[in-house]
Each structure stands twice: as structure tokens, then as C-alpha cells.
Amino acid sequence: MDRRSESWESFWAQLLRIDFFEGQWDTYHKVARARAEWLAGEFNLDTARPLLSCACGEAGIELALAAHGFAVTGIDKCPVFVHHAREQAGKANVEATFLTADLRESAPGGGRPLPGGNGCVMCFDTFGLLAVEDEAALVGRMIDALAPGGTLLIDTPRPEEQASGRMWWPVKGGYLLQDTRWDRASFTLCTEPLFVGPDGAVIELRDPYDQTRGDHSGIQRHIYSADELCGLVGSFGLEPMAVPHQRKGYTLVVAVKP
Question: 161-192 as b/e, with b when 16 or more CB fall inside 10 Å?
């Protein structure tokens, strides 16, 4: 039996965030539009000021915000996502900018200033994946990219919602299997996806975001408590608050730059 490892960029981004939604894109876009409308209204975001999304992924929310009139820039390290986002923007006749860049301070060429003067800078479903030093540095750069009075938005899954388990889905003629292990003592969520292709080949994910955790398969993520994430943002002189997220099982940390 053929068994091999693939990285996020070489295989898993396409499978998990694009192929997975085949036949479900109408529902996906409906959810993205609802979240974009909630963000814009709940936090009184101003379409007259640019909006920056860090680690934008396939950019569903970002494209929905652009359709609402926001001047959106999305950044992601994965070329698959950036290509998809640009393609979808063209199909929808929506103006938005998508850039390929690694946001980690420790990455080659990392630590560059982000595009500035933004009315909002957001980062969703990313914190806890990177090294502690990279995440702290990213918060500082996101704040630097805000205009005075701009809004910082960072979300995190709620620790109390995490659990171990196993699930599977049919995808691309094969099967996606996912084992999840929740370590309550360390607040670490380990996710091990496997894809069994129609030819019987087995593919695992091996692409650690945080090089300090050593070589490992799957995804290891630290799950921040709301207080912990607020503490990180507050260490830069802002006054963050945790608010209920429109996304079930998540908390949103919000701060306004003086």
C-alpha cells in the first residue's frame, strides 16, 4: 500500500479547504456572507478605510466583505489559497487584493511590515498554530498596520468546546479520516487527517507551523483561553475585550487602536 506525507501547500490546502466544499459552495458562501455582514455591523467597520486579513485562507469572508464595498487585502502563505481567492474575485467581479507571504517572524524574509493605514486588521482561525514568538510578533505588526481608531479582530476556539473524536467524509472519490485528541492539561488540540484515495493510497499531513514543536504529523494547536488571548493583545498597550462570536464554538477578541 502506498503511504506518503504531503505538506499543506502541496496537497492538504486544496483538499481540506477547496475540494471538501464541492457541492456545498452555495451553503459556504451563504455562511461567509452572514459572517461578513455581522462583522461589518457589529463592529461598525467603515468601508471608507482599508481592511487587512492575515492568514486569509480561501478568503470566503474577505470576498464577502469586498462585495460589501470594503477595500480588502488578504495575505496567506499558501499559493493555492491566493490563486483560488483571486480566481473567485474575478468570477464575482469583486475588487480585492490577495498576496502570498509567510506571516511568521521566523520564516525566511519574515517580519516585514504589513500594509498599513487599515480601519480593520483581522486574523481568524490561526492563533495557536504558530510559535509563541511568531504570534506575539504578528500581533505587534497587526497593530502597527492599523490606522488610529482602527479595529483589531482575532478569534480563537473556546477550550471548553474541545473534545477528542474521530470523523470521516467522502471527498474526491476517496475518504478523509480525521482523528482529534484534546489534551486539557496543556490546552493542546492535535488533529491527524488522513486521506485514503480511490487507488488505496494513504496520505498524511506533515507540515508543522511551529518548528519548535519538532517533527510531527498532523496539526498541533494551542487553544487560547479568552483571558490568555486578551493578555497577549493587551501586552501591546491596547484594551482588548472578548465578545461572543457569530461562529459557534469561538470567541472573538476585539481591540481599538488609540
Answer: ebeeeeeeeebeebebebebbbeeeebbbbeb
DSSP state string for 188-203: EEEEEEEEE-TTS-EE
What burial class does residue 136 get, using C-beta atoms within 10 Å of its C-beta: 0-12 exposed, 13-18 middle, 19+ buried?
Answer: middle
Domain range list for the chain: 9-159+225-256, 160-222
Q: What is the rounded end-to-end Cα distance, in angstroms, of the chain?
A: 59
CATH of domain 9-159+225-256: 3.40.50.150
Q: What is the reported pTM?
A: 0.95
For domain 160-222, which CATH number applies: 2.40.160, 1.10.540, 2.20.25, 1.10.4030? 2.20.25
DSSP H or E run through 54: strand 51-54
CA distance 171 to 146: 40
pLDDT-derived band at 211, boundaries 50, 70, 90 = low
How far is Cα 150 from Cα 238, in angstroms, rounded to an integer?
11
